[in-house]
Design goal:
With 83 residues, this protein is an alpha+beta fold. Helix content is 28%, strand content 27%. It has helices spanning 8-14, 28-38, 42-46; strands at residues 2-5, 20-23, 51-55, 58-60, 73-78. A hairpin with a 2-residue loop joins β3 (51-55) and β4 (58-60).
Amino acid sequence: MAQIVLTNDLGRQFAGGETTFDMDVTDVRDLIRKLDQRFPGIGEKLQDGSTAVAIDSEIYQEAWLEEIKPASEVFFLPAIRGG
């Protein structure tokens, strides 16, 4: 199962303070759907553009269809904006 890590803020707001989970998922869209089922409301927050996703140390701004392998590490991070 992939290891999923939320920011501390997301963990406090939606997951009772938990930030690390092992989940069986296939891609980021599947992950967000399953997180939202487990923690209602988190899916909308993860899709509002304020969060980036790092899969196995590679950061994605729009990662919906990026593959997540069983041994992957997935981190949700505050999105970095430039100007």
